[in-house]
Amino acid sequence: MLEEYNNIFEQFEIKVKNGYKGRGAYILDTNKGLKLFKEIRMHREKIKFMYEIEEYLYKKGFTNIDRLTMSRDKNPFCEDDGTIYIMKNWVNGREIFFNDEEEIYDSVKNLAVLHKCGSNFPIGSKYKNYVKLGSLPNKLNRHNIELVRIRNKIRKMGKWSEFDICFLSSFNYYYKKAVEALSLIELSEYNNLVNGYHKSNVITHGQYIHHNILVSNKKLHTMNFEYCNIDIPVIDLYRLMRKVLEKNDWNIGLGIEAIEKYISINPLSKEELDILLYLIMYPEKFWKISNYYFNLNRAWKPKQSLIKLNKLINQKEKKERFIRELKKTLSSK
């Protein structure tokens, strides 16, 4: 099976001993260590940006990452018959456990170190497309518009599924939360924060969740920088915290302690913590489930979508309690 890629391996100047197929990729044992090899649908410019991001982090001391392998023509990818392939360093490890407090705290501290090492990245005009600073309000506004569009389409349908009924019955609550959170961000110091971060150009991972944080030899390894960009770092922290809190039933002590662990390494201003609060308030999971179910294929995996929506609704009061406690904690800072 791997023989068909021999010409690609030669371009990467790698000799493959053996390998096996994983999730959409091959894990290879090579003369230059363990590698991950896969086809990728990404603009060449973005792959180069990802390569420079990883090299910058590595040189700044953030070394446990899946650095891309350069080809003999000095590109961090290879092409064959119009298909683009990448190869990168890999480790034998497992995803962190989101039910393990210490691993959660370690992952939060690791993110803080990433952001500290990733400051002052030299953008240059060629990578301006990957500067996402200032894009948050527009993104959330699009989500809100999509929620209304989904509601209106469901209302017009003659026959409703269980998911449709559940969505409609909970829509007003979540849409109100979405509008409130967006309004708070628009009234906040967000734009001033953006202006400040335009000067420091901090690297954000973009998808810093358990799937991309591996434990190997008792060390954390940060993988898969495909969604990396330049943005305010608290957005990375929010993504991680939302996943952690959802999987731990909005545990107040765990969530606030995790945020404190981050701040102890990479301090955040009152204005940044406000943005974190407003992002947590925003019902992104409601939008995500609804958008996925309705826009991709309403008939595909309807039971799983309904289960996820019901779980979200069942956690509603616990999330509200967490937000109240987080507000109290932040107001005392």
UniProtKB/TrEMBL annotation:
| UniProtKB keywords | Capsid protein, Virion
Organism expressing this protein natively:
Vallitalea longa
InterPro entries annotated for this entry?
Answer: CotS-like, Kinase-like_dom_sf, Spore_coat_CotS
Keyword Translocase belongs to the record: no
According to the lineage, what is the superkingdom? Bacteria
Q: What is this protein called?
A: Spore coat protein
Provide a GO CC annotation, any one. Answer: endospore-forming forespore
Residue ranges the record marks as coiled coil:
none
